Amino acid sequence: MQLEYCSAVLVDKNNFQRKLLRSLLRTSGFHRIFETDSFEGGLTESKRSSSDFLFIDYDTARQSDLLRVASNIPRQHLARHTRLIMLMDNPTQPRVKTAIDIGSHWVLSRPFSPQTLDRRIRAVLDPGSLIKITPGSERRSGKDSEDATPASGLLNEMDDLLRSSQYFSVKPAEPAKITRKPTSSVSKTAPKHAEPEEDIFLL
């Protein structure tokens, strides 16, 4: 799906944040965007219009009694193809886990750049678009380096939670097999055990 044909519903009690997100989505090519400050109103409009995306501010949703009793928002209140993206300040592990437990397809932490927003949207549409790298390799260059934050550990933990969600399945690629050439001499000193490398998804 091309972003130029996508539609979205935005839910946020903060008018400035809604307008800012609307502007960024317009720049990405979204052609139909509906705004509301009501969690229930956003769910109703998203289902009525069968929007491609529903962006919800976590703190706005948390004020609703509906959120406290909802066990699966997409299944209970949205069209089958609608992707739910939760916008979140202070994305601590409990808050992220709550967002995933209620059915969020992705959690987007604020503040975010236009490039970050675009990557997150494309990752939800096509999980295979994520770039897989290993520690020690070059992660970012140019403006993308601005997206790196000191909370990289929490962001990686957030990614693990998201990938464990039933809505976001990415099959890890088979690790490449490396054939080492035999050397003429073998060290008698036992090598130190290296820490296992973990795959990281660039977002």
TrEMBL record:
Modified residues (4-aspartylphosphate): D57
Gene3D superfamilies (UniProt xref): 3.40.50.2300
Keyword annotations: DNA-binding, Phosphoprotein
UniProt domain Response regulatory: residue ranges: 7-125
The UniProt record lists the keyword Heme: no
InterPro entries: CheY-like_superfamily, Sig_transdc_resp-reg_receiver
Pfam families: Response_reg (PF00072)
Recorded GO MF terms: DNA binding
SUPFAM superfamilies: CheY-like (SSF52172)
Residue ranges, compositional bias (Basic and acidic residues): 137-146
Stated name of the protein: DNA-binding response regulator, NarL/FixJ family, contains REC and HTH domains
Domain of life: Bacteria
One Gene Ontology biological process: phosphorelay signal transduction system
Region (Disordered): 132-153, 166-203
